[in-house]
Amino acid sequence: MTKALRFMGIMICLAVLLCFPLPGDAAKHALVIGNGNYKGSPLHTPVNDAKAMTSVLKSLGFSVVKKTDLGHREMEDAIRSFGSRLGGGDTALFYFSGHGAQVKGVNYLLPMGARIFSADEVRYKAVPAEMVLDKMERSGSQLNIVILDACRNNPFKGFKSPNQGLAPMTAVQGRETFIAYATAPGTVAWTGSGPRSIYTNYLAKAMKTRGLKIEDVFKRVRGSVLRETSGEQQPWESTSLLKDHYFASGSIVRDEPERYSGEGDFTNRYGMKFVSVPAGSFMMGSPGNEPKRDSDERQHRVKLTKGFYMQTTEVTAGQWRAFIRDTDFKTEAETGGGAFIWTGSKWEKKEGYYWDNPGFSQTDKHPVTCVSWNDVQEFLQWMNRKEGKTYRLPTEAEWEYACRAGTTTPFSFGKCLPADQANYDGNYPMPGCSKGKYRKKTVPVASFSSNAFGLYDMHGNVWEWCRDRYGDYPSGSVTDPGGPPTGSSRVLRGGGWSSYAENCRSAVRGGLSPGSRLSIYGLRLVLSPGQP
What percent of the chain has pLDDT over 70? Predict the structure, then answer.
């Protein structure tokens, strides 16, 4: 695998994908450009990228014009012609693979043969990406998609720019627009050693998946790219979509949620599904301006040098039941006077309430609750004996890294936590966000969409025990942290069915005695690499 060199310190890292059945009988037009034969800094993937995208788009009913290795005037002519083909209500898709640059907040696509000696010359020798959006706006096309896989190395060695990363692009006014970026601002996309770029390779595959909403397609692509690049390339998106759109074959009603299935995923004998989470680094904790943040969320850089497998869902009541039947184990709720139950106004300890009687109806597909950290240790010992592996709880750092799945917002879904995406008290959303349903109990695992790593219910449903003791975060960067060496409390993460949205944030932390058992506490497992 070959990592692309940083592009002149002023690279643009843009790429978009979608998934939509387009409304009515509107036409679907696409312009695909792949520029790779740059003098002095050729790229081996763009022509192949363009070929792959053209094939996929044609199979999805697009009228496609494909161009490769275009000069400045040829690029402008192609974009101008593309705009003239569009009409009111049409769907417009533009794809570019090649070198790009960002100078003074403007994004440029670089043509063949450009001779650029300083940053001020870029606007005269390259094509502004905004030209594409301007043509879309003028045409009246209703759904607009821009796909720019352009985070490459610098073909012009004579100058550098102080501007790094990409500049945000403004959506077409009065139209639905989707723009996605191949990697986060200030970071580098990976070219890879294959015939196509890593991003476009996964993009072309995901676009053909029938019945996935655009958001779910991008989660799938983002997860795949993060995995292959060990967490170093994080695709992200910008959108003004108002409706659900699908790329392939329209909406499909399913009996259960669409599940992400990546390489290395496995299911054990107890029906526990695991996905591979790559090694990588991230900012743990919350930034100072995050609404409702707590004082124990000091932000710091964390590097995880080893990937791990994480259970896609919380451990279910049915999976816990297998443990009880095999061992006759009695939980601390059963031997210690019950569990704490939410009365509607307070948590109250009540005898007779335990994992199989949590105070509300449940099936074997609901997450197990009312289990203490101590109970979980017995469960883990049993699992390891039966499976011959080393299952464990995630460290707090592993849990947050997996929860975020490359995001930096309060939730992996963004700044708000929609009640149709998580099980929590929807009467209390984040500031500026809409209220939603309060279900007042757990729901079956995987009732909502997964995050980019294919993990369900990382926000809400039940708080999840972690391996670490609770304590203050370090002030500086750390590698593979395992929590404080001493302390009487154990960490809980993710919020639960009775939590306010603010307590379901990716960064929020809880710390309680390992003997605590509430009808809102549960767990999920992890496994170190090499054991499946």
Answer: 86
Which residues on neighbouring strands pair with residue 274, listed in sequence order?
Answer: 266, 311
What tokens appear for 386 in the block? 């039966």
Chain-centroid distance, C-alpha 166: 19
Distance (Å, rounded) from C-alpha 196 to C-alpha 240? Answer: 29
Q: Provide the token pair at 238.
A: 């910008």
Give the CA-trace dihedral at 45, 49, 52, 53, to 10 degrees.
Answer: 180
Residues 523 and 445 sit within 8 Å (Cβ to Cβ): no
Pairing mode of beta strands 339-342, 280-284: unpaired
What pLDDT sits at residue 1?
Answer: 38
Non-local (6+) Cβ contacts of 184 within 8 A are 13, 165, 234, 236, 406
Query: Cα separation of 122 and 110, whole Å?
Result: 9
pTM (global) more than 0.90: no
Main-chain phi, psi angles of 527, to 5 degrees: -145, 135
**What does the alpha-carbon distance between residue 443 and residue 419 come to, in Å, rounded to a whole number?**
12
Residue 258's pLDDT is 33
CA atoms within 13 A on the CB side of 348: 9
Sequence-distant (6+) residues with CB within 8 A of 82 are: 29, 31, 65, 92, 94, 132, 135
Asked whether the predicted pLDDT for residue 80 surpasses 50, the reply is: yes
Query: If 0-12 CB within 10 Å is exposed, 13-18 middle and 19+ buried, where does residue 180 land?
Result: buried
What are the structure tokens assigned to 425, written together?
Answer: 């008290």
Segment 343-370, tens digit of pLDDT: 988 999 999 999 999 999 999 999 999 9
pLDDT band (50, 70, 90) for residue 449 = confident
Q: 327-354: string of b/e by CB count within 10 Å (b at 16+)? A: eeeebbbbeeebbbbbeeeeeeebeebb
List Cβ neighbours of 54 (8 Å cut-off, separation of 6 or more).
30, 32, 64, 66
* CA atoms of 352 and 364, how far apart (whole Å): 19
**φ and ψ of 404, to 5 deg:** -65, -35
Contact 483, 474 (CB under 8 A): no
Q: What does the block give as tokens for 358?
A: 């949590």
pLDDT at position 19 is: 35
Q: Do 520 and 462 touch, CB atoms closer than 8 A?
A: yes
